[in-house]
Amino acid sequence: MLTLILLILPLISGLLLCWNKNEGLAKSAAIAISLAQIGIFCLITPENSSVAYQWLPEFNIGFKLGMDGLSKLMTGLTVVVSALIILATQGLSYDKKSKLLGLILLTEAALIGVFTAQDGFVFYFFFEIALVPVYLIANLWGGKGISKISLKMFIYTVFGSLFMLVAFVVLYIFSSGSELSALAQVSEKLRPSLNYFLFWAFFLAFAIKSPLFLFHGWLPDAYSKSPTPATMLLSGLLSKMGIYGIIRILLPLAPVGWEKYSCLVIYLAVIGLIYGSIIAIRQSHVKRLVAYSSFAHMGLMAAAALIGSAAGIQGASFQMVAHGFSAVGLFYVAKIIFDKTGSRNLQDLGGMAKRAPKLATLFLVVLLGSVGLPLTNGFVGEFLMLKSVFDFNTGLGILATTSIILGAVYLLRLYQKTMFGPATPFTENIEDIGAKELMVLVPIALIIIITGVLPNGLLELSAALVK
User: What's the predicted TM-score (pTM) here?
Assistant: First the structure.
């Protein structure tokens, strides 16, 4: 029942806020709801997490939610990151903020549906719906030309998801119901050619959503032109639906196709990791640099998840959480820099550390977490993922490891170009961050350090997947 409350509270609140015109009330309500969500989540146990209602009884399709370790890991990421994004909007200048907060809460509700769904069609429903409020945020508060860019993003992802729907229908035809456990049992009995189709249908949906190499055409413009709340939602949460889908849906529901084709897509994912890192090095636009950094990280997560080993699945699961916080932190810092300087071009920036030491310190912690420095959460996930790639293929592991060097190059270059060197006309009169920014960046920095020093609590949640 608590899982249902966790889903319904932001859903109803989000709808109400979209029509509310009192921005002061909207801000207070959104923060209160976010804190309540975290409190409810902390009360959820495996015993009280299950929800089951007959949705379409004549077709044996039920509205079924529940949480195992992976679901709890991703739901926890969703409620905490959503709260941080809502806090971040308090310090950002957007009109119609009540509607913006409402759409963020609607996104949170849809994501909770994705990560707790125990039925294939329920999963598909929330998987599709999650993009709608982000699409609206991008259109209503985005930059020049955002309508075409967001439409491209929408078409890409909906196109891929239709293949997933067909795959679920195929499995449903051969099954007695649509529960994921029932679909997994029947998939093992299908003829190989049909299982191959299931693999590619699921993979296409998840590869576009993440996005992965060859399916990332919508990413650079969408991340750089979308308003910061939309970018934070896309990079911190929505992209994780693809990796989660690989672990939760693709591996158990297309096992024969996975055995035949996983090697090919693992190589593609590692190529995307290196490609994204190289492109990031060449960027002079702060937001595009962070976008390609996020794209590169998703490649390694996908490779590790598709390997299917204990280290790979646990590493990818842990890294989804680690990257969720570091990506949100980096995009938030990019927005702060733009608001203070009026520029996102690295050539216009420099010397900010002397004038904004608080920003420089917290930016460094977030950045080092993304680099994967030991004692940060980024290190734990990357170590396990790289171990899985090495175990799979030594040469591929060596290639993947070069991404650590490349990541350090483009992220430390970002820091050096913005924080050090002589001040420019854009940075010479800036002020340090205040309480509103600290309320977002301090929790992110603490989470990066605490979960890096004490990772076992998060690792135990995904341990059941590999027993």
Answer: 0.95
